[in-house]
Amino acid sequence: MDHAAQASQTDLMTITRFVLNEQSKHPEARGDFSILLSHIVLGCKFVCSAVNKAGLAKLIGLAGETNIQGEEQKKLDVLSNDVFIKALTSSGRTCILVSEEDEEAIFVEPSLQGRYIVVFDPLDGSSNIDCGVSIGTIFGIYMVKDKVKPTLDDVLQSGNAMLAAGYCMYGSSCMLVLSTGSGVNGFTLDPSLGEFILTHSDIKIPKKGKIYSVNEGNAKYWDGPTAKYVEKCKFPKDGSLSKSLRYVGSMVADVHRTLLYGGIFLYPGDKKSPNGKLRVLYEVFPMAFLMEKAGGQAFTGKQRALDLVPKKIHDRSPIFLGSYDDVEEVKALYAAEEHRA
Length: 341
Ligand SMILES: O=P(O)(O)OC[C@H]1O[C@](O)(COP(=O)(O)O)[C@@H](O)[C@@H]1O
Ligand SMILES: [Mg+2]
Ligand SMILES: [Mg+2]
Description:
This protein is 32% helix and 23% strand. Helix 3 (32-52) runs antiparallel to helix 4 and helix 5 (224-234) crosses helix 8 (324-340). It has two domains: 3-200, Fructose-1,6-Bisphosphatase, subunit A, domain 1 (Fructose-1,6-Bisphosphatase, Chain A, domain 1, 2-Layer Sandwich), CATH 3.30.540; 211-340, D-Maltodextrin-Binding Protein, domain 2 (3-Layer(aba) Sandwich), CATH 3.40.190. Strand 3 (94-99) and strand 4 (106-107) form a beta hairpin. It is an alpha+beta fold. It is globular and about 60 Å long.
């Protein structure tokens, strides 16, 4: 067993040491990626602290602005967006940033430019802020093709080009879940130390789960395969037990539970919104990346989610992700529908 593996089994592994251990597996690495991750971690700690103090600091409430998706922005959305933009640009390792809260991609000024592109949802689940329910941050990292001339084409790549992805959940504890390409690891923030400590190493999603997670309020608009799948969850005909329904309404929290307990999370397209609600670059891709790295699947109703190539930075897509076998069932229902058509 090498030194890093031994250390991870015997003592506390901070996220910093974990990332440096990963870096040491790539002798050619110059540390840029580790520095970028450390700035993302800093952003997460900052937002976590703001979320914890939100009620006290009277941060809760509308900022009186509307974002480009036509949704009301909360003060915490604005704050989190500012925090991540500052943390990422000051890392000196990014060249393009795409945030849910900004209509246009942000091109980092040349003096601070690096090789990485970060796509992010600074505050996910914002409808849950006012009632103190778990919310989060989602991010994905790409590398630019030509550092001297970063263009939007570098951003509009398929999810297969993603190098790393993760989310931070601001819940009963603050947890950062990260994959840098091999395996998925979860770190819990010890608030007294201000350090993320490895608590969930090499997360694997159960092959099949007992929970489905969807906004059933949209059921009247669903297409045939989605409706059939949810019906199967509730009234299985093969003698298996019905699945339980859990739906927080924060993607980070719903996906986190799905990752740890197994099951499926669905935000389908429907008659009202054929492309669903969730955004490809900074919601669908990072979560699909993590699911696959943990042994699960992510499907759009038509194709493997990571094979999508967005045309615009805020494109949306239906998404079905989670345990391998559960997503397989959804895929079979969509394939049967296509066969009938
Ligand atoms: O309220 P709905 O329609 O079920 O939507 C819930 C979904 O919307 C989201 O809140 C959208 O994310 P934002 O809060 O970042 O806009 C997801 O977190 C969640 O999965
Ligand atoms: Mg979101
Ligand atoms: Mg958001």
